[in-house]
Write a structure and sequence with these properties.
The chain is of the alpha/beta class. It has six helices and six strands, in the order βαβαβαβαβααβ.
Length: 205
């Protein structure tokens, strides 16, 4: 942000720190002039990591979103008054690969807790976006009006994938179709469906 003068979003995982440490990080970010963050749970530690570290998870993501909303209102996790309220724009994550109905219910809770925008894991079927918005409206009783940023990942045959990829797409990769070509085709489908809030996930080797 200092170098380019652009808005940035930083990620905060509930897995790694207790409530005091997380809120200290948030206050530090405020001092640095950072304004946007996205709350994630963080991937589980591997069996190789577990002898060395352990997950803290003092907050669940929805609870941390609620706590940041409280900090924006001038109160810390002890319900003590802050010297000055924070002013964060808070994002929440959505993973449609875990089930659209379940994720729409969870997203509604995150929005109720104070989320200002949603970011999805990469999706590979544009129809999933419509199904998610419809499920959200059915769950919450109102249309989803917050910005949703839909993930578009450029895949590689042996790369790391952070979401559920359809078998048809995997087969195309195995047949050596370039991941960029698949992503551009999907991007065109997004545009034709009127979906313009897209963030790009590069190949992860």
């Amino acid at each position: 942000k200092q170098r380019w003068g652009k808005d940035v979003v930083f990620t905060l995982a509930t897995r790694d720190m207790n409530k005091l440490a997380i809120q200290s990080q948030i206050l530090g970010a405020q001092v640095l002039g950072l304004e946007n963050l996205i709350v994630v749970q963080g991937d589980p530690f591997s069996q190789r990591d577990l002898p060395l570290v352990k997950a803290v998870d003092d907050y669940r993501p929805t609870e941390l979103i609620s706590a940041i909303t409280q900090m924006n209102q001038g109160m810390d996790f002890r319900s003590a008054k802050l010297r000055a309220p924070t002013d964060f724009c808070v994002g929440a994550t959505v993973d449609l690969g875990r089930g659209i109905e379940a994720e729409s219910t969870l997203a509604a809770r995150k929005v109720s807790a104070g989320a200002h925008f949603l970011m999805t894991q990469p999706i590979f079927d544009v129809a999933d976006a419509t199904r998610f918005c419809d499920a959200y409206a059915a769950t919450s009783g109102e249309a989803l009006v917050l910005p949703v940023f839909w993930g578009l990942q450029i895949l590689e045959k042996d790369g790391i994938i952070f979401s559920t990829v359809p078998d048809s797409v995997r087969q195309e990769l195995e047949q050596d179709r370039p991941g960029v070509e698949i992503a551009l085709e999907l991007y065109q489908a997004f545009k034709e469906a009127g979906i313009h809030n897209i963030y790009l996930v590069p190949p992860i080797r």
